[in-house]
Amino acid sequence: MPADDVLYGNADVIKAIADPTRLKILHLLKHGELCVCEIITVMEKPQPTVSHHLNILKKAGFLKWRKEGVWVHYSLSNPKIIDMLNELLENR
């Protein structure tokens, strides 16, 4: 059996995708990098809300980011993330 800290870490990763808003963000990013301002527009949610969800996904390792001037651009850390999620949810 894995150690407790490993199990808690795995649970945190699963919790990160257990939210419809975060799943939508992941699906948006499957098409490529987006600026936070673009994500806000599509999500129709306030900037603090979107930033909160982006930070959770980033901490869980799903996203990578880069700063360009005042703008932050996000992309998937692994393009196969969406395929893995779809496969996981396909058989439920």
UniProtKB/TrEMBL annotation:
Location of the HTH arsR-type domain: 2-92
Pfam families in UniProt: HTH_5
Record Gene3D superfamilies: Winged helix-like DNA-binding domain superfamily/Winged helix DNA-binding domain
GO molecular function terms attached to this record: DNA binding; DNA-binding transcription factor activity
Keywords assigned: DNA-binding, Transcription, Transcription regulation
Transmembrane segments: none
InterPro entries according to UniProt: ArsR-like_HTH, HTH_ArsR_DNA-bd_dom, Metal_resp_trans_reg, WH-like_DNA-bd_sf, WH_DNA-bd_sf
Family matches, as PANTHER family: ARSENICAL RESISTANCE OPERON REPRESSOR ARSR-RELATED
Name assigned to this protein: Transcriptional regulator
Organism field: Methanobacterium subterraneum
